[in-house]
Amino acid sequence: MLGIIRQKLGAGTSSATMLGQLQRIRPAASALRSFSSSAKEMTVRDALNSALDEEMSADPKVFLMGEEVGEYQGAYKITKGLLDKYGPERVLDTPITEAGFTGIGVGAAYYGLKPVVEFMTFNFSMQAIDHIINSAAKSNYMSAGQINVPIVFRGPNGAAAGVGAQHSQCYAAWYAAVPGLKVLAPYSSEDARGLLKAAIRDPDPVVFLENELLYGESFPVSAEVFDSSFCLPIGKAKIEREGKDITITAFSKMVGYALQAAEILAKEGINAEVINLRSIRPLDRATINASVRKTNRLITVEEGFPQHGVGAEICASVVEESFGYLDAPVERVAGADVPMPYAANLERLAVPQIEDIVRAAKRACYRSVPLAANA
Amino acid sequence: MALSRLSSSASGSNLLKPLTSALSLRRSFSAAADDSTPITIETSLPFTSHVCDVPSRTVETSPKELMKFFRDMALMRRMEIAADSLYKSKLIRGFCHLYDGQEAVAIGMEAAITKKDCIITAYRDHCTFLGRGGTLLQVFSELMGRQGGCSKGKGGSMHFYKKDSGFYGGHGIVGAQVPLGCGLAFAQKYSKDETVTFALYGDGAANQGQLFEALNISALWDLPAILVCENNHYGMGTAEWRAAKSPAYYKRGDYVPGLKVDGMDVFAVKQACKFAKEHALKNGPIILEMDTYRYHGHSMSDPGSTYRTRDEISGVRQERDPIERIRKLIFAHDIATEKELKDIEKEMRKEVDEAIAQAKESPMPDPSELFTNVYVKGYGVESYGPDRKEVRAVLP
């Protein structure tokens, strides 16, 4: 199948070796050009940059737009080198006017071009949210298929480090609620490359939620990931770690935390299955429910605000589809129900930590076990 | 076109002096409709400009064009009046924003451009859609929410589209269409199509921030975008002087040139749009302010008389009605008789009535259409109705 490759890592094993490498941010080991026989690595930044580069090369209708994407080489260097390669007609620096340039991007998509609009962070997308939802998401429906909108809105989403309340919100739940949008959240470099390529090729509007703290992280990638036709399917989650005692769903940076929590839980005899959602809308309910039917327990993990969050939707889906299989109430681990504080200790308390995931998982596992059996 | 001289043949009342008086035999209506003999007339008022030259007041037309303008505007007028009745008999639901009075803007613009140029407007879009080549049947079917509608009944009054002839809607959020229109212009330039986009908005939308954001980018990037303010002097119930510190909308572009146009004179509109297209292709964005008027209220739920006097409305109808202006020109040039024009109006009425009857026959969309067109590619994902255990669909 040209261009669509289902990445299937072997059960448990390769995920475990990956884990050791995910503990800390590695120095940039950008896409290897030499072909050594050991696992090749790629940073998320290089994954995104190479995906943009290849899609722009393959389709002249693809162009980039956003603040500092051109001459500055990208606020987070994701678009580095692309202005030099493709010129100012295809890599456009915009003024700081999100409502205006997002509307222009959507209009260009109406005409048939394929814009990739960067928000410096998704917090600024709120300036343009009317265009994302009313002008982009709903157009294909309102026009009964006449006007489709092949646009990608991308940029860092969620908490960074110490950037305060106005720069730390996660928008996954908001955008994923809207019919007509697709919402993707990559975790690894393979995710970043495959999902961004899929997003750019997709004929519908896609909200692509990256994470600033993951940009510099390096992940091993298989040879097929380097191929320019590499693409991941939209709407399919990935089981990062197979398990049988409890299901942990996560997306973006929290996948890494969930994997680390799984290692800790393994030492205590709890074998956790970690699902990397990859796609928030469409949500892969089938994979999530199949997993819960196997493990009978579920924790959802996300960075964003807890009320009406992604975890709430997953919980509802599982209660609706797999109620009889649940041996414990669903647990949600989410950001604290407060605006993000600045002080380092408070910030740490406002975002899920690995120990939060571990604790919630243990709760879910002991619920149906009589206390006497603990001893 | 930088001509600013007044036509040398103007003698003030050029409007009423037929050039063909030497052979002023009255020709039959059908001959008139095919007659391309040039007639020179002047626009009602000179143009006023901001940071650019004015186009000439002298316009060339022909009996053929005059008859076409009359017919098309009469059709639009009749269509909107019929929509009023349909709304009152509850066959049209929700919002219905009528354009009668403003026909000259839609018709004049179409006469100056091609279907490869793009038009985008807000929610007062029925006549604009018709001008772009939409049919009466598509209009009435859509208004009544039927399958035969231009959006298959799923859009409604505010969401008409005709992409194959460059009409990009039909937008409900005031002001949003302007950046979208600048985006269309961007794409036209990117694709090297040598075409332009007309982004229409009202005096109410003229104060929107996103308009100025889009204008700034359009000027920076030299986009072939023409921003057309259809100034009917009321943003819903708020008169322009209560909403805008400066209601000289053609000047609001600052560094972007602007032209003030009598929007009730179809020739002024045509001339201005022609001028604007040439300008935009060479120099980037330009603003056209069309001084126009809507006879109806903002929408069908607005009587339109609480914030303006009935005298004002009837005054405009008497002095400035666009169809009456063409009628007088047709008489002045002996192109058709009063009876012939009345016959055309009757014919338009009949066309509208037939289209409505046919539209009423069109069925409502099949319930399965609830779930179509959410995406172009749905990847087989499930979607749900209100009772999700009861109603589910797979998106193709």
Fill in the keyword field for this structure.
heterodimer; A: 375 residues; alpha/beta; seven-stranded mixed β-sheet; five-stranded mixed β-sheet; 13 helices; 36% helix; disordered N terminus; B: 396 residues; six-stranded mixed β-sheet; two-stranded antiparallel ribbon; 12 helices; 12 strands; 38% helix; globular
Description:
The complex is a heterodimer of chains A (375) and B (396). Chain A is α/β, with parallel strands linked by helices and 375 residues long. Helix content of chain A is 36%, strand content 15%. Chain A has 13 helices and 14 strands. Chain A has helices spanning 13-22, 44-58, 82-86, 98-111, 129-137, 139-142, 172-176, 189-201, 253-267, 285-295, 310-322, 344-350, 354-366; strands spanning 40-43, 62-66, 91-93, 114-118, 152-156, 182-184, 206-210, 218-221, 238-241, 246-250, 272-276, 279-281, 298-301, 331-333. In chain A, the strands form 3 sheets. In chain A, strands 3-2-4-5-7-6-12 form a 7-stranded mixed sheet, sandwiched between helices. A 5-stranded mixed sheet of chain A has the order 9-11-10-13-14, sandwiched between helices. A two-stranded antiparallel ribbon of chain A has the order 1-8. In chain A, strand 13, helix 11 and strand 14 form a beta-alpha-beta unit. Chain A is globular. The model of chain A is unreliable at 1-36 (pLDDT under 50). Chain B is α/β, with parallel strands linked by helices and 396 residues long. In chain B, 38% of the residues lie in helices and 13% in strands. Chain B has helices at 29-34, 63-88, 103-112, 126-131, 136-143, 177-190, 209-220, 240-243, 266-283, 310-320, 322-332, 338-361, and strands spanning 39-42, 48-50, 58-61, 118-120, 197-202, 225-231, 234-235, 238-239, 258-262, 286-291, 381-384, 392-395. Chain B has a 6-stranded mixed sheet with strand order 2-9-10-6-5-4, sandwiched between helices. In chain B, strands 1-3 form a two-stranded antiparallel ribbon. The N and C termini of chain B lie far apart (51 Å). At the A-B interface, helix 4, helix 5 and helix 6 of A face helix 6, helix 7 and strand 11 of B.
